[in-house]
Design goal:
Length: 349
């Protein structure tokens, strides 16, 4: 048998990363398993979006926020494995056996589910041949705004992400057009108005029906759209196409028959604000956890993580303090604090 960890965290998004930090703070031997090649979860889909709603933290780009979360998560040297998809969790003699798609087994005294909305992948255009443009100018997320400068852009989708991108790209683009298959956009009204005020062209009841390549067949040059009501169509020259049709959720994680965890909407784990579930030894934090009074914001995610880890600590050590000591008085940070202060006040050379 491999090493048995105190806690194995499944999921490397904000909830999982902060759980890894806090588990180390509470002195737990910690492992984190992430199915994707990179840590960061859904925030990775929006690297250039500014995050405003973290208490006491100035607006920060998603990409920078993830880097900081990862650095923080590694504070107490947890074992972190990426590209590790968990398929099955079994309970055996008070130890959880975690099976991966690669046939590996991991052993843990407790499990902390932090899988968010599941393994997510964008809903792609179903047009024939669309996939060949994904390496050029067909995008399912916006990694960098630089490539959109002075470009004619078409965005397909009517949700918050689509309209947010329209607003953010409009100052640097030559033009931005949003097409949406329904009559009314589903994005927030204030954001829609902001897009209109910025000169974004919004065409509802409209879908993309054809993508036509440039002369050397390497990128999209023309986009054909059709009005779903009148059936009239038009073709327009476009430099960049962004598709924001939402995401498919893969919820393939399974449990053996000995593990019974009630679920909400056949996916979300029903539990408590403490992170506890109906199954002793299995805890949850972040979007996957459902309870009355749940706050579905990043600040709520961090509270979920701390509560779940505290519950794990007292589950493993019933006489342990319910809460960890605040960082400002915690001996674990004494040397780290001294190093940071010395660097801050070191004389310039």
């Amino acid at each position: 048998m491999q090493h048995v960890y105190d806690v194995t965290i499944i999921g490397g998004g904000p909830a999982g990363l902060y759980s890894a930090f806090y588990s180390g703070l509470r002195g737990l031997k910690t492992k984190l398993l992430e199915s994707q090649p990179q840590l960061g979860g859904k925030v990775l889909l929006y690297p250039e979006k500014l995050i405003w709603d973290i208490g006491g933290h100035p607006p920060v780009l998603g990409e920078q926020f993830v880097k900081q979360l990862i650095e923080q998560a590694k504070t107490f040297d947890p074992t972190i494995l990426t590209g590790t998809k968990v398929d099955l969790i079994e309970s055996h003699n008070d130890i959880f056996v975690i099976h991966t798609a690669a046939g590996e087994k991991h052993y843990s005294k407790t499990v902390l589910l932090a899988v968010g909305g599941g393994i997510i992948s964008p809903q792609k255009l179903t047009l024939e041949g669309a996939e060949k443009y994904e390496m050029s100018n067909l995008h399912y997320t916006v990694q960098s705004y630089k490539r959109f400068v002075d470009k004619d852009i078409m965005i397909s989708g009517g949700g918050n992400a689509a309209i947010d991108w329209a607003v953010e790209l409009s100052p640097i683009a030559k033009s931005v057009t949003v097409v949406y298959r329904k009559e009314n956009l589903s994005a927030h009204e204030a954001t829609v108005q902001e897009a209109l005020d910025a000169g974004v062209r919004i065409e509802c009841n409209t879908t993309i029906t054809k993508l036509s390549a440039n002369i050397d067949k390497t990128a999209i040059q023309l986009v054909t759209c059709e009005n779903t009501i009148t059936k009239q169509s038009y073709t327009r020259q476009i430099d960049e196409v962004i598709v924001s049709h939402g995401y498919n959720r893969e919820a393939s994680l399974a449990f053996d028959e000995a593990i019974a965890i009630p679920k909400k909407d056949d996916y979300y784990v029903e539990g408590k604000a403490t992170g506890e579930t109906a199954q002793p030894g299995i805890f949850a934090a972040g979007d996957i956890l459902s309870f009355d009074g749940k706050i579905n914001l990043l600040l709520g995610t961090f509270q979920d993580a701390a509560n779940a880890v505290n519950s794990i600590k007292t589950y493993l050590e019933p006489t342990a303090y319910r809460h960890g000591m605040v960082s400002s008085h915690n001996e674990l940070f004494k040397e780290k604090n001294r190093s940071i202060i010395e660097k801050q006040f070191a004389p310039a050379h």
